[in-house]
Design goal:
The complex is a heterodimer. Chain A contains three helices and four strands; from the N terminus they run E-E-H-H-E-E-H. By secondary structure, chain A is of the alpha+beta class. Chain A starts with 6 loop residues before the first strand and ends with a helix. By secondary structure, chain B is an alpha+beta fold. In chain B, 33% of the residues lie in helices and 28% in strands. The chains are: A alpha+beta, B alpha+beta. Chains A and B meet through strand 1, strand 2 and strand 4 of A and helix 12, strand 16 and strand 18 of B.
């Protein structure tokens, strides 16, 4: 099953000019649990998906909001020469194809 | 009596139900008129609006320009000024003019004075500067009181000198001082979003846990609702809890939508650091009153033993010129990576004959990896691609020369299997090269420990 079949929202945005934060929001607890328990959402798996080094990606569950937050460094500081996405609003794309 | 004086006079009453109207999360992009009118009919005790952010990148802080259009900005300011004066309630605006440095604040204040004159509005205006004195920041660096945020390098005195503008984020304390001078309208330079809304509750002696949490949520207007949006939001602070209600009847503040909002643009949503303390959100409870309103309680406010200020600065890196073109020739598209590498080399040879390689030429190929750095190209390749060439050079003339040369040699570059000998790319208009103005980057994003906040954020008063 794909992540997008269970998530209500898959979004990315800067958290300050150096960090990228990706939020996965769910409508129900079952979907949230299912995704949280998937090996595809382990920090190492997400790091590989994003071509990052192991240990540089955090996956943080937020049960009160039925949400999972992924945090990593931006590759380029927001707006610096060579940046592709100043707001970091389009960096969730690899998650759209993610198989759980 | 000032607007805030009237509030303080009936503090026992308003402390039981203090109504804050969050008018805009980014003043200057237009406030939905109908929902603002609904909000004003609810007789709020004060109005707040955030006018800036670090999100749009370093250009605005660096250049001193507004991100919003002057006409729209003036319209938004005029609407809020008229409303606040009509109801005779405080109006507080934070991070004036997109980035909150002196030129942004001055441009905003000029609009405010102009609106007051044109509309015959009379009020006491307080402005709060957020520009950091450079000698003081250097002294803080020397004494080890400045630390980098995230992966920034340690701050040096050169960084401080180079930054075209250097601001600090003021906290609730600065807005309180402005209100204590009997200001009806407070226009602040760079400010924490929360401070805009937390000052009135702080002056009234409200519990700061819920007050700060409320402020954190309503600075984004109705973004905490489903569906989220820009409409004004009304928050009613009632002792140890507050109630959220969007002023657009189609937006619902649900327990889940409000809880999820705390995640937005935060790497650690459980902990919001402010100059005067830390807001801990994990203990918060969200309880739906009906299908449009949610009551929130339980967040904790831990005052800091020593205040800290977030510093922001941007430095000029050069002048930008861009080239816009595209292709729908499969042969060009299949070879585009090699073509651009080769063209870059050809350009280097031509523009560096008598001059040093003092520029950076970058191509982004939309359709392949313009937005996200995909590790491998798509298969099959797209039917069309868009090519954005960008040059950053010491002068606009130099940047323009580089992209013009790139344009011509990209158009006519030869590659294996080429059939398109009249031109490899299409230009959407003429000229296809544009000046992008001055380019900046953030070179200061650090935390500075201070002994006292007040001297760093001076309040100026004028009676209009």
């Amino acid at each position: 099953m794909k992540l997008v079949e269970l998530a209500r929202t898959v979004r990315s945005k800067n958290a300050g000019p150096l960090k990228l934060t990706l939020d996965l929001l769910f409508d129900d607890e079952a979907a949230y649990r299912r995704v949280l328990q998937s090996p595809a959402l382990e920090p190492g798996s997400v790091a590989r998906l994003y071509g990052r080094r192991e240990g540089t990606v955090e996956v943080l569950p937020h049960p009160a909001a039925l949400a999972i937050k992924i945090v990593m460094d931006r590759l380029v500081v927001s707006g610096d020469v060579g940046d592709r996405d100043v707001y970091g609003a389009q960096q969730h794309a690899p998650l759209l194809d993610l198989e759980l | 009596m000032s607007a805030v004086g009237k509030l303080l006079d009936r503090r026992d009453c308003v402390r039981r139900g203090l109504k804050a109207l969050g008018a805009s999360g980014q003043l200057g992009y237009g406030i939905p008129e109908k929902s603002l009118a609904v909000g004003l009919e609810r007789a709020p005790d004060y109005i707040g609006a955030d006018m800036g952010s670090i999100d749009p990148g370093p250009y605005y802080l660096g250049s001193g320009e507004l991100a919003t259009a002057p006409a729209t900005t003036r319209t938004d300011l005029a609407r809020l000024l008229r409303a606040a004066r009509q109801l005779d309630i405080p109006l507080l605006i934070g991070t004036a003019g997109s980035a909150g440095a002196a030129p942004h604040l001055d441009k905003t204040l000029a609009m405010v004075r102009d609106i007051a004159r044109a509309d015959g509005l009379r009020f006491r205006l307080a402005s709060i500067r957020a520009d950091m004195p450079r000698p003081l920041v250097k002294e803080a660096v020397r004494s080890g009181r400045v630390t980098p945020i995230d992966s920034m390098v340690p701050l040096s005195e050169a960084h401080i000198d180079e930054a075209s503008h250097l601001v600090g984020q003021m906290g609730t304390e600065a807005f309180c001082r402005a209100l204590q001078s009997d200001a009806d309208v407070v226009i602040a330079g760079r400010a924490c979003d929360t401070a805009i809304f937390a000052a009135v509750p702080a002056l009234l002696g409200c519990a700061m846990g819920p007050a700060m949490h409320m402020s954190k949520i309503i600075e984004c207007a109705s973004l905490c609702c489903v569906p989220g949006g820009r409409d004004p939001i009304l928050a009613t602070l009632e002792g140890d809890s507050f109630v959220l209600e969007s002023m657009n009847s189609e937006r619902r503040a649900t327990a889940m939508s409000v809880a999820a909002h705390s995640l937005y643009e935060q790497s650690d949503p459980d902990r919001v650091a402010e100059p005067e303390g830390v807001l801990l959100v994990r203990s918060a409870r969200y309880e739906e009153i009906d299908d449009r309103r949610t009551r929130v309680s339980g967040a904790q406010w831990i005052p800091a033993s020593r205040p800290t200020i977030k510093l922001e600065g941007a430095v000029r890196v050069g002048e930008r010129a861009v080239l816009l073109c595209g292709s729908c020739d499969q042969r060009v598209i299949n070879h585009i990576s090699d073509i651009l590498t080769e063209v870059t080399e050809v350009v280097r040879g031509l523009v560096c004959r008598d001059e040093p390689e003092d520029y950076r030429l970058i191509f982004r190929v939309y359709g392949i990896d313009g937005v996200y750095p995909w590790p491998v190209p798509p298969s099959p390749m797209p039917r069309e691609i868009f090519i954005l060439g960008e040059c950053i050079a010491p002068t606009a003339e130099r940047a323009g020369a580089v992209v013009r040369t790139a344009k011509q040699y990209l158009l006519h570059h030869g590659f294996p299997g080429r059939l398109s000998t009249a031109g490899n790319v299409a230009f959407p208009f003429t000229p296809p090269e544009l000046s992008g103005g001055t380019a900046y980057r953030f070179n200061v994003y650090h935390i500075m420990q201070v002994d006292e906040l007040a001297p760093l954020f001076p309040v100026e008063i004028e009676d209009l």
